[in-house]
Prior knowledge:
The chain starts with a helix and ends in an 11-residue tail after the last helix. A hairpin with a 2-residue loop joins strand 2 and strand 3. 51% of the residues lie in helices and 13% in strands. It has four helices and three strands; from the N terminus they run H-E-H-H-E-E-H. 17% of the residues are buried. It is α+β, with helices and mostly antiparallel strands.
Amino acid sequence: MRLRYYFICDIFAEMEGDFLTTKEAADELGVTTGYIRRMIIDGRIAGAKKFGRDNAIPKDEVIRLKNTERKAGRPKGK
């Protein structure tokens, strides 16, 4: 498993711009990795790239999401 992590880190280093793994983005935003994956599928994280089962998430997107103000709790129904 450790070898796979280093391989993915090498791929991220070769890519243009700064990218984070799903785990790093989740830690930065204070959410779970599953929620990050759901945000990618829903299109709320732009520019994410998929490598097998791993994702490369642009650092700019994580900063943008971190700076957006969110209401606590569940959304109200219509």
